[in-house]
Amino acid sequence: MIYNRQYETMSRDDLAQLQIERLQTMLNRVYRNVAFYKHALDTQRVEIENIRTLDDLKRLPFTTKDDLRASYPYDMFALPLRDVVRIHASSGTTGRPIVVGYSKNDILHWSELVARQLVAAGLTEHDVAQIAFTYSLFTGGLGYHFGAEKLGASVIPASSHDNLNDQLLIMKDFKTSALLCAPSTALALCHLFKTTGIHPEQLSLRCAILGSEPWSERVRAEIEETFRITAYDNYGLTEIIGPGVSGECQQRNGLHINEDHFIVEVISPTTLQPVKMGEEGELVFTTITKEAFPLIRYRTGDRACLMDGCCECGRTFVRMSRVHGRTDDMIIMHGAKFFPSQVYDAIVGEEGITSHCKIVLDHQGDFDTLEVCVAIAANHGYIDEIKTLEQLRNRLAQRIENSLGVSAKVTFMEDGLLAAEVKGKKQPMVVDKRAA
Ligand code: DLL
To answer: Where is the signal peptide (predicted)?
Structure first.
């Protein structure tokens, strides 16, 4: 099944024509309404009327996460707040999150794009969709909610909360047929499910739509085997729209990008030049229909490649590979996303520790763990008091959990040793043992 056959199966020539028309309209809009883009386009001497083909896209300036942070909260909005009906923000960041807005039309488009992806995974109005993404500033909960309602599914806004028993209870009693959540949540549910003694046939579950963080084929296999279901990958990011950027169809051989709304490029993060079809690089998106928060050539920091050739499902939209990693040092664990500097920001100012910090990412079974190594300052009066050190350890762990949303084990190291390891740097050093 295809939700919007007219667009999702349009010829590549017609699509290119539609993209360029939409791009020109968008460029005119941002030039008039977003000071940042007026300045960027003027500085690069871009005449919008000279952007006539998709090849001209490479003459446009990039937009980065730093640009968006600097525009906090509303400087990149292309509409006044009275025309903005929804505001979300990037998840898990301290300090200045990236704030994004949606007009009424943006919400209508977003709902359709999510509905398309649900249909691509085989959902219909007969499905009971349990949404176990957080309903919050994070786009996962509400994004899927509107999309699933648009499709006509029976939506259970379970949200994500610590009590996985409740999720399983809902899944069984409410006859959930589609589970929508982060892969780490699905995996945790798997483990809990195995302890309940419930047989998968006692559930109505038949598929899971998972996204928002990287997950391996091994994790996919475990989720599928445990619940006897099919699991689909969905990709998206707050800055571009949230979920609804791309998703797997039933072929599960790449994620179709909703190209009538987003133009995709893959560039080399070093030369910033487009790479060849099939080569891995950084995903860059230009939104061509967004009214409230349009972005030109947004550098996502996500590594992937585009896949050549037609898909058997009949959709003509290009497919991207699954995300292979990041071009920057952003850490993703259990749906939380943060930069190493934010770990340090969370604990800086706590009396008794030095400015050196090492972050160790590892895994216990299928679950990622975070260890933060710090050193006690030599002049800390109570360095030898175990009780005081324990309290300090707990305070640090609490501060990290409060600001990043993940629990951390805090380890004390001797300062000379830690300073030598981090080579005296102020930025935390990261040791990632997860892939090992
Ligand atoms: O994670 C939006 C979303 C919600 C997508 C629900 C899919 C499902 P952010 O919190 O802004 O938005 O995080 C975006 O998460 O740049 C990737 O690094 C990562 N990411 C998202 N989906 C995937 C995926 C939402 N399927 C950032 N595989 C992105 C790997 C993913 N990484």
So the answer is: none
